[in-house]
Amino acid sequence: MVNRDLGQTLRLIAKHGDRIFYEGEIAHAIVEDMRRHGGLLGAADLAGWRTVRNAPLWGTYRGYRVSSNQPPGGGVMLLEMLNVLERFPLGQLEHNSAEYVRIVAETMKRATIDKDRHVGDPRFVDVPVERLIGREYAAGLAEDIRAGKKAQVPRLNAGAPRPDTTHVSVVDADGGCVTMTHSLACPPA
After folding, report:
1. What's the mean per-residue pLDDT of the chain?
2. Does residue 158 surpass a pLDDT of 80?
3. Between helices 98-118 and 135-146, what is the axis angle to 10°?
4. What is the pLDDT of residue 139?
5. H or E segment at 164?
């Protein structure tokens, strides 16, 4: 896979530092793309952006301590899924067998439903983190899966163009990190 635009973006950040993404050449390209495609971000949004550091969200899985990111990131979904999957003997099932895939898929569907209903930026949405990653809640979800109940994931924009996202993170030997996310609207399948 060759992605010349991403390569050039990463070279510019390496040469000029992260501010070029928010105020320099890359920022100007983002603002122009937003303008052309009806996006909501402007130059002031990028220039005013600052890193927010949050404590990690912690959980456990089969004796391991797991850390993930706080909302609006996907850490709530991850810990919810691990709490549900911990209630099944996955190691005793044939990998990718019908039962294995059913359990994992039903777990993922339930976490997606919860993400769509409850997870957002906590500056604007009350996210019930403790309930969603709670053991009691996971036990109820696992019981439904064990009983064969199928979850239906409602799609709010069914039939509309969907955003597809590509996400790349690069970490160097010194711990420097660059994360790029690119979304584009694709016609419905």
Report:
1. 88
2. no
3. 130
4. 98
5. strand 162-171
Distances (CA, A) of 112 to 76, 91, 103, 107, 120: 10, 24, 14, 9, 13
The encoded tokens of residue 146 equal 């064990």
DSSP state of 70: P
Q: How far apart are CA 187 and CA 189, in angstroms?
A: 6
Task: Tell me how far the alpha carbon of residue 145 is from its chain's centroid.
Answer: 23
Query: Are 118 and 132 spatial neighbours (Cβ–Cβ below 8 Å)?
Result: yes
| Strand ranges inside the chain, DSSP E | 57-61, 64-68, 162-171, 177-186
> Is the separation of the CB atoms in 41 and 26 below 8 Å?
no
Dist CA 173 CA 19 (whole Å): 21
Question: Which tokens sit at 153?
Answer: 């994931």
- One-letter identity of residue 52: V
pTM of the model: 0.70
pLDDT digit string, tens, across residues 3-42: 898 899 999 999 999 889 999 999 999 999 999 999 999 9
The one-letter amino acid at 62: R
Question: What percentage of the chain has pLDDT greater than the value 70?
Answer: 87
Residues designated as active site: 165
Residue 113 and residue 155 in contact, taking contact as beta carbons nearer than 8 Å: no
